[in-house]
Design goal:
single chain, 285 residues, mainly alpha, Tetracycline Repressor, domain 2, 76% helix
């Protein structure tokens, strides 16, 4: 019988730190900038929706890739290939979390509920993309980019340019670091006819593409701060986040991938958390 710790491992629950801070930024920016009253029930529903969406997306990815993962030395120890969780159990977990996601959006407001099937289609559909396009990294970026704009809509119920630009920050940031992570499987993906930027362009050019995407991230962060007339706290958070983007590119070389996990998990996790804290402080202090 699968234990709780195996489900936490299946969905890499700790990786929620990537998108959750941006969702919270979208939520609190909507509260303060649109002058809404802080509703703790809505906040709880937004956090729960992030958890359900993350669980469904990650478990579905592991389910769809279970036979591929079993052939890859790096991933054969994952929960489904190793037998700690069965494929049927993982699929049931996906269905339950998807339903919880849809139900939770119903209790937020109409627009989030009506858009929730589209969001679910994006985050689940990502798992198929590497089978036919090297742009799979961008699809992953779109999936996580839905977090800040979705949280903003949960409060305001209408679109605004600020969360849209913040979502593009997430899109370029996530796509860039996912390319770095995909460097590890370049040879294996080629052998399985799977697609990625490293497979198509090679490691060196893939790192250049990743750098360009992170330059776009930096430029958008600067433009947001300028157009929104943000002050000290935002600029501190954006600066630390940008420095960590630069730092992760010093860790990974085409001929040295030993620090990919440090670049992928540590720097991005810290960067997201720090930016989230300072971006929220900006509108509250």
């Amino acid at each position: 019988m699968s234990s709780l710790k195996h489900f936490f491992s299946l969905v890499k629950f700790s990786h929620t730190i990537f998108a959750l801070p941006f969702a919270l930024v979208g939520f609190f920016w909507a509260v303060k900038l649109e002058t809404y009253e802080l509703n703790y029930i809505t906040l709880l529903l937004v956090v729960l929706d992030m958890i359900w969406a993350r669980n469904a997306a990650m478990a579905f990815n592991r389910y769809i890739d279970r036979f591929i993962d079993a052939q890859n030395e790096r991933t054969e120890i994952r929960d489904i290939p190793s037998g700690r969780i069965t494929g049927k159990t993982a699929l049931l977990f996906v269905i339950v979390n998807s339903l919880l996601f849809l139900i939770t959006t119903y209790f937020i407001n109409e627009i989030t509920f009506y858009l929730s099937p589209i969001a679910l289609l994006v985050i689940l559909g990502y798992s198929y993309t590497k089978r036919f396009t090297a742009l799979c990294h961008l699809v992953l970026g779109v999936g996580l980019a839905l977090a800040p704009i979705g949280a903003y809509l949960a409060v305001a119920g209408v679109f605004s340019w600020l969360p849209v630009f913040l979502s593009f920050v997430v899109l370029f940031w996530v796509s860039g670091f996912d390319i770095i992570y995909a460097l590890q499987d370049e040879a294996f993906d080629k052998s399985q006819n799977l697609n990625s930027i490293p497979v198509v362009l090679g490691k060196q050019k893939a790192l250049i593409v990743s750098s360009v995407l992170h330059i776009f991230t930096f430029v958008l962060l600067m433009l947001i701060g300028y157009w929104a007339h943000f002050e000290l706290y935002y600029w501190v958070g954006a600066s630390i986040f940008s420095l960590l983007l630069f730092y992760q590119h010093t860790l990974v070389k085409p001929n040295d991938l030993t620090k990919v996990n440090l670049a992928f998990f540590t720097t991005n996790g810290i960067g997201s958390f720090v930016f989230g804290v300072f971006a929220i402080l900006e509108v509250y202090l």
